[in-house]
Design brief:
- This protein is an alpha/beta fold.
- Among the domains are: about 1-50 and about 565-690, Golgi alpha-mannosidase II (Immunoglobulin-like); about 90-245, Sandwich (Jelly Rolls).
- It is built from 11 helices and 38 strands.
- Strands 35-34-37-31-30-25-1-32-36 form a 9-stranded mixed beta sheet, with helices on one face. Strands 2-13-16-17-18-19-20-21 form an 8-stranded parallel β-barrel, surrounded by 5 helices. Strands 3-6-11-8-9 form a 5-stranded antiparallel beta sheet, with no helix packed on it.
- A hairpin with a 4-residue loop joins β23 (about 535) and β24.
- Bound molecules: alpha-L-arabinofuranose.
Length: about 700
């Protein structure tokens, strides 16, 4: 939610730039003397490309897990969405203590309705356990085979029904004495016309028991306007908890992830997962932080919590699930730990009161990396992950530059000392400038308009190289387009990623944010809390935005070495930034000269292939000369992968998921020096067949 202001340095005289702009604006052939020239020195490697350069940032926002990646299809399965969110200030908060959720009296649980005259209410007198300290009480005064009574859930804006698919149903239930009838579960169309699958479960007693069954559809058309129903054919009183419905998950993981979203991510080849990043790790208050110890073990033992983005999280997608996600996509976790500061500016200063949180972080690292001989490593094994995870980076907090108390320096130092003492190999990431210790990396966040992103697309070229603290750009996005970015967003992103790549000697990793948005209800239902998100979906379908495809192109054409690159005669455009106020007084409008051509070059070590990225953000085609030195030859044929569209507003959506996607073609006329025209509003990746000297 924060902006760091940076200004790109002009590299050329303004007279010269104006000339270039005029020529570029014509869109036609540029005078040869002013042709933009990009020079690549293939014998000069400026940095190895960090193997974990491209990654993912994740948090529970925009229904990213619940109603998103997490496979669960039932909304409010644990009936805690009505819990009254409690505010506990640090002075009254004991991290070792449980603070059980409280509920309004006499209400029916959100997102559940009834059929057959059933009456439902939240019941705190019949909880499943301490974690799920409430249940749904279903009172059916009348019910029969012809007129069953029960509960209905519409999922997260629908329940996806696919052909020939088996869904796993589970729930905990008990009944009042005397109840001796089966319960029926079914997947039905919301209009009541079609029953897609049906099963019966019997054996309820007056004690809580877990029941499981499956529902298998026939060769029906895929749809999402559906409901899940649980009914009785006999009168009685029944209590239910954790009513769950899972489709087949990615790689068939139990309690696993939605397959289509996982596949979109896998296709882009991310190398790390910042988990969890963002405000979600902090929470609004201490009792609403990412409290990982309550997000492990069997899901019915996880109490859940109100997440900072306005909805309840069951925490079925907790720390083990982040690790499962990493395993499935072959990503390295970048573990973010709670650092004693919350979104509402509550904090615990450095000192003995911070110690429990430091210990929490140490235990969390042990959970991720420990073997069976360690307490928390053994717990992870019990949770289904026998092998310790490779962990190199731990991030301490999130956006602690918000903490105006000045406590971060001390808090960071306390975490730093404890973690380095036990795990000296770990690289520690700060989230604001610190003086007391030298952070290994600092996390910088940039949310920008297209023009701002392009204005600062050379900012790291002039960063001080003497700084021992490297850079992790842990959140960034060109925020143009809603719910997902359009081509203009992708152009800003690509300009920015060229900058990150050119500067991979100081920028070690980066990840776009936010990753996901459920686009089902952008109005009152607020399925989105933050606009311009990389990947959109509803209950049934999903799509990648043009920004996603830009990411994918860059990530799949990473290379192993960054090559020295320089440019002359870069075209520019005029941009007037939005008016700003200083001390309440509107500042005079300024006009910025912004470059409209961006570039980077890397090489694959094994093949020698040179990968050149060129972004033409202008609305006109751009002729560019490429000179490559330090090679004996460049093959005349290569390939070009291009993302472009008729205009910068073009975008993808559920209805047109593949409107703006890259296309790859064989190109000829390449060599150590060649000119090529780059289409308007385009991102091009050239793969050149190079022979070393
Ligand atoms: O990505 C959305 C939010 O932006 C993150 O939660 C927070 O870290 C940042 O302010």
């Amino acid at each position: 939610m924060n902006l760091i202001k940076c200004v790109a340095r002009p590299l050329f005289t303004s007279k010269f730039i104006v000339l270039c702009s005029l020529l570029a604006a014509t869109g036609a052939g540029l005078a040869q003397t002013n042709l933009p020239v990009i020079q690549i020195q293939a014998d000069k490697v400026t940095a190895p490309m960090p193997p974990t350069f491209y990654g993912l940032m994740t948090e529970e926002i925009n229904y990213s897990y619940e109603g998103g990646l997490y496979g669960e299809l039932i909304r409010n399965r644990a009936f805690k969405a009505d819990a009254i969110p409690e505010i506990i200030k640090p002075a009254n908060y004991d991290p070792a203590q449980d603070y059980p959720a409280k509920y309004p009296a006499g209400v029916a649980p959100k997102f559940w309705s009834t059929v057959g005259g059933a009456v439902i209410s939240l019941d705190t007198n019949n909880p499943l356990n301490e974690a799920l300290n409430v249940s749904l009480k279903l009172a059916a005064a009348t019910a029969s085979t012809n007129a069953p009574a029960g509960i209905v859930n519409g999922g997260y804006w629908g329940i996806p029904v696919r052909p020939l698919t088996t869904y796993s149903v589970s729930f905990f239930a008990k009944a009042a004495p005397g109840y001796d009838a089966p319960l029926a579960v079914s997947l039905e169309s919301a209009d009541g016309k079609t029953v897609f699958a049906h099963a019966e479960i019997s054996g309820l007693t007056s004690d809580w028991k877990k029941f499981t069954t499956t529902l298998t559809t026939e060769n029906v058309a895929a749809s999402k306007e559906n409901i899940f129903k649980l009914t009785t054919t006999a009168p009685g009183t029944i209590w239910l908890q954790q009513v769950s419905l899972f489709p087949p998950t990615y790689k068939n993981r139990t309690n696993g992830d939605r397959a289509d979203l996982s596949q979109i991510l896998a296709d882009a080849g991310p190398k790390f997962l910042r988990c969890p990043g963002g405000n979600y790790v902090e929470g609004d208050y201490f009792n609403r932080r990412f409290n990982w110890k309550r997000m492990i073990g069997p899901t019915e033992q996880r109490p859940g919590h109100p997440s900072c983005w306005g909805y309840w999280s069951t925490d079925g997608f907790g720390l083990p699930e982040f690790l499962g996600w990493c395993q499935d996509l072959n990503m390295e976790p970048v573990l973010a730990v709670f650092a004693g500061y919350t979104l509402r500016h509550d904090y615990v200063p450095a000192g003995p009161k911070l110690e429990p949180y430091v210990q929490e972080a140490l235990d969390e690292i042990e959970y991720v990396t420990g073997d069976a001989s360690t307490k928390w490593g053994a717990q992870r094994i019990q949770d289904g992950y026998p092998q310790p995870f490779k962990l190199r980076y731990v991030e301490i907090g999130n956006e602690d530059w918000f903490d105006k108390s000045g406590s971060y320096d001390g808090r960071f130092a306390q975490f730093y000392d404890a973690i380095k003492a036990k795990y000296p190999q770990l690289q520690l990431i700060s989230t604001a400038n610190v003086k007391s210790r030298t952070a290994d990396l600092n996390d910088e966040h940039y949310y920008r308009s297209e023009e701002e992103m392009e204005s600062q697309a050379f900012m790291y070229d002039t960063r001080n190289r003497d700084n021992k603290t490297k850079i992790f750009v842990g959140e960034w996005a060109t925020r143009v387009g809603s719910p997902t970015p359009n081509l203009a967003g992708a152009l800003g992103d690509a300009a920015w990623m060229c900058c990150l790549e050119r500067n991979a000697d100081i920028v070690m990793m980066h990840c776009y944010a936010p990753l996901f948005v459920n686009v089902s209800d952008l109005g009152a239902g607020r399925s989105m809390q933050w606009k311009s998100d990389l990947i959109g979906y509803d209950a049934l379908n999903s799509y990648g935005s043009p920004s996603y495809y830009a990411q994918k192109m860059f990530s799949q054409h990473q290379g192993d070495e960054v090559l020295a690159i320089a440019a002359q005669n870069l075209p520019t455009y005029q941009w007037q930034p939005p008016a700003k106020k200083h001390n309440g007084v509107e500042q005079p409008a300024t006009t910025n000269e912004v470059k409209s051509l961006f570039y980077s070059a890397t090489r694959e070590r094994n093949t020698g292939k040179i990968i050149v990225k060129i972004v033409n953000r202008a609305d006109a085609p751009q002729l560019v000369k490429l000179d490559i030195s330090g090679v004996s030859s460049i093959g005349a044929e290569g390939s070009a992968t291009v993302l472009k569209a008729a205009n910068r507003d073009a975008t993808n959506s559920l209805d047109e998921p593949k409107k703006v996607v890259p296309e790859t073609e064989t190109v000829s006329g390449l060599g150590t020096s060649f000119t090529r025209t780059y289409p308007p509003c385009s991102i091009t990746i050239l793969e050149l067949d190079a022979k070393l000297l």
